[in-house]
Amino acid sequence: MQNFFPSRSIRVADGCLRTGQWWRLLFSEEPGGSQDLETCFSSRAASLFGEGPPSVALGFPCTEGPEKNFSFLLMWRHRVPPTSQCFRSLGGIDEEIVLEPRKSDFFINKKVRDVGCGLRHTVFVLDDGTVYTCGCNDLGQLGHEKSRKKPEQVVALDAQNIVAVSCGEAHTLALNDKGQVYAWGLDSDGQLGLLGSEECIRVPRNIKSLSDIQIVQVACGYYHSLALSKASEVFCWGQNKYGQLGLGIECKKQASPQLIKSLLGIPFMQVAAGGAHSFVLTLSGAIFGWGRNKFGQLGLNDENDRYVPNLLKSLRSQKIVYICCGEDHTAALTKEGGVFTFGAGGYGQLGHNSTSHEINPRKVFELMGSIVTQIACGRQHTSAFVPSSGRIYSFGLGGNGQLGTGSTSNRKSPFTVKGNWFPYNGQCSLDSDSEEYFCVKRIFSGGDQSFSHYSSPQTCGPPDDFRCPDPSKQIWTVNEALIQKWLSYPSGRFPVEIANEIDGTFSSSGCLNGSFLAVSNDDHYRTGTRFPGVDMNAARLLFHKLIQPDHPQISQQVAASLEKNLIPKLTSSLPDVEALRFYLTLPECPLMSDSNNFTTIAIPFGTALVNLEKAPLKVLENWWSILEPPLFFKIVELFKEVVVHLLKLYKIGIPPSERRIFNSFLHTALKVLEILHRVNEKAGQIIQYDKFYIHEVQELIDIRNDYINWVQQQAYGMLADIPVTICTYPFVFDAQAKTTLLQTDAVLQMQMAIDQAHRQNVSSLFLPVIESVNPCLILVVRRENIVGDAMEVLRKTKNIDYKKPLKVIFVGEDAVDAGGVRKEFFLLIMRELLDPKYGMFRYYEDSRLIWFSDKTFEDSDLFHLIGVICGLAIYNFTIVDLHFPLALYKKLLKKKPSLDDLKELMPDVGRSMQQLLDYPEDDIEETFCLNFTITVENFGATEVKELVLNGADTAVNKQNRQEFVDAYVDYIFNKSVASLFDAFHAGFHKVCGGKVLLLFQPNELQSMVIGNTNYDWKELEKNTEYKGEYWAEHPTIKIFWEVFHELPLEKKKKFLLFLTGSDRIPILGMKSLKLVIQSTGGGEEYLPVSHTCFNLLDLPKYSEKETLRRKLIQAIDHNEGFSLI
């Protein structure tokens, strides 16, 4: 209804503080129906005011500069009779209606800071904070009992430094420099917020319920009021007939300020009120409106009143920076200087060259060629200022002269306000006699009145720009200037107001959500479900600048505010995406990573996060998914540290009385990591999967016991006495921990199979029909027919028997299998199965890898057998030597092979495909001459296979080249070998399938199957144990390690094969490989002997280094076969 960003003095180059000039017309009601405008005007004016004096003009000199410079406040309006009690006169002008801006000279030597207009009264705020009022005082709206014909000081506010005012129909709010609000006038609907029983209050009173809250803006509707606090809280009070308070339909009126809780967390920059509707504007241009909507003044595409705040979605992307309201219409200003209007248009106040109402925001077409920097709404008219021309444009109801066009005609589109307007450009070429030209400083409209605050061209400063809001009227936000202000005080010597400022900022989610905005290219105006509108790097830098060791008091205050005020108030439902930002930025605060704050800040913060409703959590996940990897990892790392911290406490011991809360803490931290892991996977791995690994897990908990608890939970549900199991969140396990899990699972299944066999055997003692069974899976094979014998046994093996421990017996050999015989069995049978004589696999020389051959004559049973053998190897903790690419393990884990896999298997082909994808020109068809086919060899002949339907007729071009590469990869790894791999897959999962296996990443599964080659020979020496006469410094042991470290790599690998049955090391690393060396009673003529079942080496006591070298090499070069030793 009026301007809520009042004018203020500006210091210009010559050091003079100046305000400007204003123009104004006062009138109360618009003409109606088909009445003659002048007749209606005169009759209504007579009924209201009788006959009286016209408006007056005022001005004042500025004497601080080298010369006297004047600014003026211009007013024009209807005459008021001397007998009326509603005096609106400011004295001096006799015209009944002032149709164009007129200069007045009432406030000479008084600087005007702000002006507010009610329906029949006017309020002036001077630069020194004093308040003057004039006009109708029937309802106490002047705040004094002095003359009403001219402005008189409101003495009750003499002790206050008032900085802003706002007027309703007959009530006034005044805001002082301490953020306190004073009210007076009509209180019929509680619009004063004083909780009084009087109909009107004639002397200003402080609204005590707001006295502890720092208010930065106030706005009045006809019978309701709004206030915005420094902490981004919106308060409302007064009439709620149309929902203008935003408190819901049940509330009819409210006599004291009430917080609009549905708006908590949003960073606001402005509040505005119309006749019976209200708006708030966020820092990133989102508008929420509520209240009366009879003419569509809320812009919500209908005419239904709203009792709670509603987002005006159609303007979200328009970069709205300022909003103002008339009685039943609304105007919005964009960052680019455009103007949107909507609502009642019966008098042309929307500027669309029509008198139609608009229920949706519509841009004012005739202003689109200009950059507008100020707008203002009167009751039924609108004004706009274009600084490039210096002109003011107005449109709407003109019957009272409020348009300043020189007539009482209504205007349906923007029309220039009469006057010698001069644009400000920083310099003036006019001579000193040209004072009839005016440079506008600021415009304002309210009721049926308009103002222009201006100066002469010689003394003017730059005009106000509503696109750049006054910082003193904005909420707290964490920024460079504020931090420097806080840091400027010595540690431990904070004034109370600074402590309150820090507390207020970090106690408000709205303030934090308004901090660190992405101002570059106005990016924060793009805030939405896919973009947060914050500068994460700025957040990190500013947080680290604020939290410093040499300013502990700041850190303590911030921590206390977060712990006691901010986090406990967080809710699961949020009103807007802008209320989510601090979930993104707060983890950058160093206090969050301080272990002393884990249980008081980080975990409660995580609890609020995981409790978010589905919709806001989805938005937060979208925002996480577009973070740079270091920023995303920061959040992951934080909650990994929290988990480690809690597990360390668990290892020390948790008292029984605290176990439940401990479990909830651990669950929260792991749940946050689970959400982040889900985001990471969905986004195609923002960070590598192993960044989620918590390597300390194995040291801090018993993984085997945790797995057993997890199995019980899966079977029987969550039990009160079973703690949170880490197995529920397997993504934190590294490869070693997963291997331990898989081994634990295998041991459990083996034990179950053994127990079942024992039960059956016991039953067979009493029931002869039940056959006894062996508790182990026994394979009796001949070395010369190892494949055939194994296939014969495994074909007859029941699925449950695969879960038994494997024992291998070589026919004719006496060794008892304690592990070593089994190791050799896997080595020999895989060597045989992969032999080219079977033609089951194709060998690729460039990569030295093998893949399934689509030309084999072998049936699928052999591929099934290989799958079973691989599964048995894993199940029985044995490494096997397979030269398959990573694609095999991807397919086993249900992941798709990619071009990278083709590059690994067929390097030349893979590079060619990459060149095709990277080729920058458009002439791909002519350059590469490819179609959707592949050429394969078929027993010496070439054969062309189509990759897609009609592939031979489909040329590869720039648009479909990715499709061609994908089809090529799919053919090599999937289509061409589908039946063969399916048989292998079935065999493998028959033994080794299950949930635990799917926890592995492809490269981890590969390492577990074939081991790895991350050799650390010094670690091997360090982990070796000695028996008998031997010890680490024994002469024979010393020369043994000298000889060993001098061996070439191939001989060292042969030694591993000789001693352990494999030349590769387990996935758990060299530290998991325990060697034992013991002395023997024989002489130096004997060879070293290995016991692969136990990784045990019998080493004769050699005295000569060369003798030891010769005997050791002889032993490792002839290591096949088992016999009793």
Automatic annotation (TrEMBL):
HECT domain: residues covered: 798-1125
UniProt pathway annotation: Protein modification; protein ubiquitination
Alphabetical UniProt keywords: Cytoplasm, Repeat, Transferase, Ubl conjugation pathway
Protein name: HECT-type E3 ubiquitin transferase
Active-site residues annotated for this sequence: 1093
Cross-referenced CDD domains: HECTc
RCC repeat spans: 129-178, 179-231, 232-284, 285-336, 337-388, 390-456
Species for this entry: Marmota monax
InterPro entries to which the protein is assigned, alphabetical: HECT_dom (IPR000569), Hect_E3_ubiquitin_ligase (IPR035983), RCC1-like_dom (IPR058923), RCC1/BLIP-II (IPR009091), Reg_chr_condens (IPR000408), Ub-ligase/GTPase-reg (IPR051709)
EC number: 2.3.2.26
GO CC terms: cytoplasm
PROSITE patterns: HECT, RCC1_2, RCC1_3
Location in the cell: Cytoplasm
UniProt-recorded Gene Ontology molecular function terms: ubiquitin protein ligase activity
